Amino acid sequence: MEKQQEAARPESKGPKRQRRPRRKHNKSSANATGAKTPAAEQESDELWSIQDFKVPEVEGKVRFHDLNLPDRVLKAIQKMGFEYCSEIQAATLPATLQGYDLIGQAQTGTGKTAAFLIAMISDFLDYPVEGERPNHFPRGLIIAPTRELALQIADEAEKLTKYTNLNVVSLVGGMDYDKQRNQLETEIVDLVVATPGRLLDFARNKKVMLNKVECVVLDEADRMLSMGFIPDVKSIIRMTPHKERRQTMLFSATFPKDIQALARQWTFHPQEVSVVPKETTNKNIDQVIYTVSDDQKWPILKKLIEENDYQRTIIFANRRDETRDLNEKLKQANINCAMLSGEVSQDKRVKTLSKFKDGSIQVLVATDVAGRGIHVDNIDLVVNYTLPEDPEDYVHRIGRTGRGGEMGKSVSFATENDSFMIPEIEATIGASIRCEYVRDQD
């Protein structure tokens, strides 16, 4: 159905929709008209200028200064502690700031979230909507496959819009429906970050209208495909303006044929960027596989956590009952831990993740779906208590450590029941993993 609808509209053979010229920003106060008040003013009594954000030029690096961003965005970037663009940001922002569509291949932890948020927010600031606008007509839409990822994106969007009047609303399942509906009814909504199911519910009930959306971002498209969300996403896309009249950015860690087809269908003359490390896994991660028996796993795990001085650790298991059992054992061993799995309520998962971030919780036990939304810096150790059934999940699991240039460590347990997965995992990451045989403990 969607292909027919897209085909029915003739595509221009020339350039994409007429581009709005980037405005040259005068280097003045970040608290100029449009900044949030009074919260932003309380943050700093003095007017901010670009002179407060000095970043030296470094060969081979792109400064955020060099991109002609609005001062209010630059101030937020400075407050977040960033100075130079990551590789994906440097590769995509010059095009997306000009309004080009984008197909980007990038994994978690590369800075892609800030890449698409900075482009979207800058455009909204450069070209504010004139006149009054109904509450429930957002300008920007970001769709993510999991609640945790959507909330992480919304959190980063809040930080980047801190000195603006732009309002971010998250619409995710498993959280207070009435509260989200009330936001749509009572607040001017500029940017919606959503999971497909909850967004479709609101859209079908006319609580949020998508026909005036200026920019659509689809994040982790491959995960949306594997989780069965593509039919919902197709329905959502049909509610937005035609691809010639919106900007579309699609990001995916991998590009199976189905995602390639959707990317071509949903974007208009896109720029294509791939930022993929030569090795699928981060070279800053020390990887080891312990070949063990089932009854060796728990004592070795406990010893690992103790030897790691109870530093921030994530333990992955394949099943909910496994995470439940491990969580109980860890608590009985007086280890400060919590569990993230599908059986934990969303509110509790959000609180747990927040406590893990601030160090109140030291060890998380998670399943793959719950763990996909964990974007926390300074994770020292990742343990695969059971090897994942999908080799791609191995990459995502251990990618939680060794981020931001820091060294990390991953330890995987392999028993006679799942050791057959090792060659497949090594083929996926394009490297061999050190294996150590663990003798029986006396």
From TrEMBL:
One Pfam family named in its UniProt record? DEAD
Q: Where is this region: Disordered?
A: 1-45
Q: Where is the DEAD-box RNA helicase Q domain?
A: 62-90
- Skewed-composition ranges (Basic and acidic residues): 1-14
Report the superkingdom from the record.
Bacteria
Where the record annotates domain Helicase ATP-binding, the positions are 93-273
SUPFAM superfamilies on file: P-loop containing nucleoside triphosphate hydrolases
What EC number(s) does its UniProt record assign? 3.6.4.13
Q: What is known about what this protein does?
A: DEAD-box RNA helicase involved in RNA degradation. Has RNA-dependent ATPase activity and unwinds double-stranded RNA.
How it assembles, according to the record, is: Component of the RNA degradosome, which is a multiprotein complex involved in RNA processing and mRNA degradation.
What is this protein's record name?
Answer: ATP-dependent RNA helicase RhlB
**Gene that this sequence comes from:** rhlB
